[in-house]
């Protein structure tokens, strides 16, 4: 019975020695009433809260959040490009209704994604707050005293020395503090601990996740982003009416737009002309002149990865194309339209399509008001005549050709409904036909003119082909916080993975024969081969200051019969 009691005492001492090596909650710490009454509402609420705020559930929710983001990266999103979403619907008539029900076209604002997001946020806060207080308490406290049986710890050693116990303890205290251990003398032993950075890194990692979640939510609520196509020589003012498309967060207000203007002075694009990378961009930059209200004009070259930044708003260069300059005249020869018409690329060699619309000012040969429309097909480097549609063989402007098909009638803009400026609605229009009765189509070189039949006028492809660039104007608040959180999370994770939390005890007591007995032992949060190595190194250094005492000589025993 006495031996059992002693073992229980030693086990309790070992448990106390290993206590508070981590702030992680002990599994199974929740109240259990096995065989007793049910937990009730309060009991179940506590149980649910403990489960939700456990690190295990936090990691599961983090995994679910990353898993839930996969559809958002693979499926077109309404918040990014509604036209791509509509094109996806047209191609997948069976999947689209299912995706609508699952909210796959609006992943980041869906109910299920928001639920995971909020639960993760609550779980992290509920887990980190109590662990932080526990960690602060550990920092303010001292390492626990040495157990009675140091030889039962995972790594231990002992030797005898002629140095006094106090001398050994002082040497051990100085040695451990020199190794950046938190050490103090308690009773007949020195207790030391090291590796608090592991738990600090763990807490920093999870706090950083909260910072990133808050920054992401803040950015989504207050963000604004829009696109604008600008032709060389034209400009943009950062107001809602200037955008071609615009998206914003739920709490964004239009007066939060940063006031500034810019003009596209020129676009420069050069491409590889030979080799396997023929057509690959070598230079891709837009020269801008920009200013803020009351400020001076400043110039900046914007590249794909070098945006213009004005008070937190960034202007990114997204795309590029060509805008042939055309002149349209009526039957009397009066100019009714002259402008650069942006056309949209359909391949990597900038083969482009679009529409030229003359909505006002045109009259036919009888003086009657009418509207003109031309379907345009443009190639910067003509590949030569052949069967089918023409195409470009190089993205650079080396041999431009403009193909036109003319229509007259109603463009459909008088109804007041929004219309795609790059597409021609021909439902209420008639095609021009030549003298042979065939549809009027013509390919034009710069400077050439296509005459419309019956004195309807003409359209000229001028010798000037301008270039255009598309810009993404974005304001994303809290990006600095998100970056700080990401960097801190990486640092905290590295600390929690590579720093080891461990304790060392050195006991020095005088033995019955007057020689000091030195015991050293170490205990880590987890089994590690480095703990015995570190303890061995400490023991060697301490042994140099308290060397091992020589073994006592055994007395000579006379041989049997020697006395006789």
From TrEMBL:
Q: Which keywords label this protein? A: Cytochrome c-type biogenesis, Membrane, Transmembrane, Transmembrane helix
Q: How does it sit in the membrane?
A: Multi-pass membrane protein
Q: Name one GO biological process term.
A: cytochrome complex assembly
Q: Which stretches make up the ResB-like domain?
A: 55-535
Q: What is its main location?
A: membrane
- Record's Gene Ontology CC terms? membrane
Q: Which residues form the signal peptide?
A: none
Name of the molecule in the record: Cytochrome c biogenesis protein ResB
